[in-house]
Amino acid sequence: MKAMVLHRMGEPMRLEEVPMPRIGPNEVLVRVRACGVGLTVVKAIQTPGRVTSYPRIPGHELAGDVVELGSEVRTVKVGDRVTSHYYLTCGQCRQCRSGRETLCERPGGHVGAAIDGGYAEFIALPERNIVPIPDGVSYVDAGVASDAIATPYHACHKEARVGPGDTLLVIGAGGGVGVHMVQMGRVCGARVIAVDIGEDKLDLAAANGADDLIDARKGGIAAQVHSITGGRGADAAIDMVGARDTLEAALASLGTGGRLVMIGSRPKHIYGDDPTFSINPEAFSKRALEVHSSRYVTSAEIEKTLELIRLGRIKPAVTRTFPLSGAQEAHELIRNNATTGRLALLMD
Predict the structure, then answer these.
(1) Strands, DSSP E only, in the chain?
(2) What is the pLDDT of residue 271?
(3) Do domains 2-132+317-346 and 149-293 have the same CATH topology?
């Protein structure tokens, strides 16, 4: 089969012919039809220790058809259209059994890092990771939904607790996850203030439902948020960037009782700048603020996200697609912040 293969950290991926995956008794073989491409995978393959061995096939936002079952598989059948959960979890620890599998106490790593991923024609996946795709949802939409849209579902619903009448600030609103955060905020009933750099990203945020736009290049994000809200500030801020200046701006933009949710990150070993930000405990306590980190999603949240897509409440913003051989080009565009919305690979 054909696959994009990474032989060493920092090297370009190469299109190669590799052996077909062999499945174990609790695994399924999936013919990949589409695979989303985003900043998570770009950063993962540049982070020491994330890829556990080489050569490795990256990619985790995959969707396709089940073509073979392991001898112990009981909940999946050949022909099922499926996507995948990104984390490899034990399913038995306290966190997994309480529905918080992203905090698994015996984690096995990630699809595309600890096992071969979706930048390939076929992939072997644990039965536990399989999530069914409902009728009416395309392969590319389902693949992207497994991370770039399910993450906004979790962040808005569980962490930011966005509700009708709230004001939600989204920093990095024109990116592959941020543009779906804008849509999810609107689904939750919020007024959405979108922050990004460049007219193309802000235009995309506006096209996906943002009520107000702020160009971060002009500075003064917090002052503009307070002006837009009549001095009240935002009820919640979700930062997709994870830089010191954006995180501090997000905190300063919050009103009393506001919630900051951190999703994006800018590791120093990749970007060079220290993302550490400071909090004044007295002011923080006086305003009763909250800071949350959002750590991916549960399989159940992926299913709910796919249902929102099926119902037409959320529309995946895939702005460009590539053949499998174009994965390296897609990575370079993301690394250079030269994209809007989400990118995806389409297999022949």
Answers:
(1) 2-5, 14-17, 27-37, 61-69, 81-84, 122-126, 130-132, 167-171, 191-196, 212-215, 234-239, 254-262, 290-293, 318-322, 342-346
(2) 73
(3) no
Each domain of the chain, given as residue ranges in start order, spans: 2-132+317-346, 149-293
Residue 183's closest CA among 297, 343, 83, 317?
317
Q: What is the mean pLDDT of residues 254-265?
A: 93
* pLDDT for the residue 210: 98
What one-character-per-residue DSSP string does 153-186 give?
HHIIIIIS---TT-EEEEETTTSTTHHHHHHHHH
Distance CA 260, CA 236 (A): 6
Q: What is the mean pLDDT of residues 297-322?
A: 97
Tell whether domain 2-132+317-346 is in CATH 3.90.180.10.
yes
Instruction: Give dist(CA 32, CA 348) in Å, integer.
Output: 10
Q: How far apart are CA 260 and CA 250, in angstroms?
A: 7
Alpha-carbon distance 206 to 182, whole Å?
9
Q: Which fold has domain 149-293?
A: Rossmann fold (3.40.50)
Q: Decide the pairing of beta strands 81-84 and 122-126.
A: unpaired
Amino acid (1-letter code) at residue 219: G
The answer to whether residue 8 scores a pLDDT higher than 80 is: yes
Q: Is the pLDDT of residue 268 over 80?
A: no
Q: pLDDT, tens digit, for every residue of 151-181?
A: 999 999 999 999 999 999 999 999 999 999 9
Can you give the pLDDT at residue 272?
78
